């Protein structure tokens, strides 16, 4: 089964109460500087890194690494050299921008 990693910038938080029991949804915009294609190692990246979800989101959809340095080291140790730059650049961007999160589409 493939996985797409999609990067989003959180721009706001929707209403806490919504019709039909929803609510707390994040308002986002797609981060254009990341290739969302399926690459070797993406699934392991999603499963092996320790992630924390956005605190305002009740359904755990948008994530950031718990420890950026540990995540970068995991990429260096486990992702083939040809695929590392894409993930390392994303992690660097996320570290600089606290509103940048990833979403995993299985």
* Spatial order of the strands forming the largest sheet: 2-1-5-4-3
Shape: globular
The succession of helices and strands, N to C, reads EEHEEHHE
Q: Mean pLDDT across all residues, rounded?
A: 88
Largest sheet: 5 strands, antiparallel
Q: How much helical structure, as a percent, in the residues?
A: 25-40%
Query: Structural class of the helix and strand makeup?
Result: alpha+beta
The total count of strands amounts to 5
How many domain regions? Answer: 1
How much β-strand is present in the residues? 25-35%
Kindly, what is the distance between the CA atoms of the first and last residues, rounded to a whole number of angstroms? 7 Å
Q: Which terms summarize this structure?
A:
globular; 106 residues; alpha+beta; 3 helices
Description:
This protein has 106 residues and is α+β, with helices and mostly antiparallel strands. It has one domain. It has 3 helices and 5 strands, in the order ββαββααβ. A 5-stranded antiparallel β-sheet has the order 2-1-5-4-3. A hairpin with an 8-residue loop joins strand 3 and strand 4. Helix 2 packs antiparallel against helix 3. The chain is globular, with a radius of gyration of 14 Å.
Could you provide a short overview of the structure?
The chain is of the alpha+beta class and 106 residues long.
SSE layout and pairings?
Elements: E1 4-13, E2 26-30, H1 42-48, E3 51-53, E4 62-65, H2 68-78, H3 81-96, E5 100-105
Antiparallel strand pairs: 1-2, 1-5, 3-4, 4-5
Helix pairs in contact: 2-3
């Amino acid at each position: 089964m493939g996985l797409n990693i999609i990067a989003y910038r959180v721009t706001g938080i929707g209403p806490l109460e919504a019709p039909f029991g929803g609510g707390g949804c994040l308002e986002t915009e797609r981060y254009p500087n990341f290739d969302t294609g399926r690459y070797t190692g993406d699934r392991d990246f999603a499963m092996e890194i320790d992630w924390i979800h956005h605190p305002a989101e009740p359904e755990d959809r948008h994530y950031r690494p718990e420890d950026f340095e540990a995540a970068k080291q995991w990429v260096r140790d486990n992702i083939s050299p040809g695929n590392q730059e894409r993930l390392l650049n994303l992690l660097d961007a996320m570290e600089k921008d606290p509103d940048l999160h990833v979403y995993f589409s299985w």
